[in-house]
Design a protein that fits this description.
This protein is mostly helical and about 200 residues long. The protein has one domain (about 5-85, about 130-204): Four Helix Bundle (Hemerythrin (Met), subunit A). The chain has helices spanning about 5-45, 50-100, 110-160, 170-204. It comes from Methylomonas subterranea. This is Chemotaxis protein.
């Protein structure tokens, strides 16, 4: 059975919301990892002197990601509302077209054609707005990729600095691994969001 464009839009927007929720949770985990790393680096003192500023970078990246995802969630909500609106407009157009076709020879058929034209225009406007929001959301998702890439670079540097931390080596390396893993998850989730958006953007 073929899935209608509006249904595929609903599915795509719902999946994006789920992926963004996961991204938010992972970003919070990075923030927690930064706090743990700061505490470990403080206890390690001079042995982890090079690691201390890294924890600030990790925390800033987590905050940046959370802020970006909050903005994206607002946009995704607008996209969902537009999906509902466009679906309703499409259904209204279909009904008008059926009525107009069956009343073609009626005395006041012209008034129906005018209403149909207005409905089609509103549907076209809604469709354009939907497409614009898809493009904007794709751009915002691209922005989330930047802190995720930066986090992976920082994680690599963290491993180097952790190697100088003596008995704190394993604890700080665990932090680096958790940041690297979290950044990879964010990258993968955002990539899925962009894929889903690209599909409905193409369909639109």
């Amino acid at each position: 059975m073929q899935v209608s464009p509006s249904k595929s839009q609903f599915v795509a927007v719902a999946s994006i919301a789920a992926e963004l929720s996961a991204v938010m949770e992972v970003a919070k985990e990075i923030s927690l990892a930064a706090a743990n790393a700061k505490a470990i680096a403080f206890r390690a003192g001079e042995k982890a002197k090079g690691f201390q500023p890294i924890t600030d970078f990790i925390n800033e990246l987590a905050k940046e990601t959370i802020a970006l995802v909050n903005d994206i969630n607002e946009h995704a909500l607008k996209l969902y509302r537009l999906t509902v609106k466009e679906h309703r407009m499409a259904e209204a157009c279909k009904r008008f077209e059926k009525v107009a076709a069956s009343a073609e020879s009626a005395l006041h058929a012209a008034s129906l054609r005018e209403s149909l034209q207005q409905t089609r225009q509103r549907h076209a406007d809604c469709h354009r707005e939907f497409s614009r929001h898809v493009s904007e959301l794709l751009s915002q998702l691209a922005d989330v990729m930047h802190p995720a890439r930066a986090a992976r670079v920082i994680a690599a540097n963290s491993r180097i600095e952790a190697s100088q931390a003596g008995e704190y080596l394993q604890s700080l390396q665990a932090v680096a691994e958790s940041v690297d893993h979290a950044a990879q998850i964010i990258h993968d989730k955002v990539h899925k969001c962009r894929g889903a958006l690209s599909m409905i953007g193409t369909a639109a």
